[in-house]
Amino acid sequence: MLSNELLSAIDDCTEQLISLNLTISFAESATAGFLAYSFSQACNAGKTLKGSLVCYDACLKEDILKIPKALIEEYTPESAEVTREMALKLLDIIDCDITVAVTGLIKPGGSESPGKPVGTMFYCILYKGVVTERKKNFTGTPQEIVNNTIEQIIQTILNLIDDDKVEE
To answer: Per the CB 3.0–4.6 Å rule, which of 58, 99, 118, 158 could disulfide with 126?
Structure first.
């Protein structure tokens, strides 16, 4: 469920993307489409949101996004390296200005380890050819982890486009 605070942040981000005539797409794993759903709830979302690919299973990362199996095996499906490739490869499928990829661990299982506990989330944003990557650790329920991740992604997008406005 989306809190009023999260909905407000999504609305603000969407309005700013629309004002700059920017489009956005997502490649989602741990968030399982909830990131795109969240953006779809904003007014005029269709003016900026192009789409999303949910690739929860690693085989979809390989088959659809064409991420090399060796990379996934070396770093795990929930890693910064795979997340970066997801953001980069999404541009081969969806033409847009900003791609966002997200993976991580919202519950036990997967590639969980002492160095990568439940709550570890990776996201990568590709904007104007620049890759911005983050690794964040959250606690709470799976939904709280996902919501916190979405909040961080929104803030990063806003910072990137604000920085871009300053440079112009």
So the answer is: 99
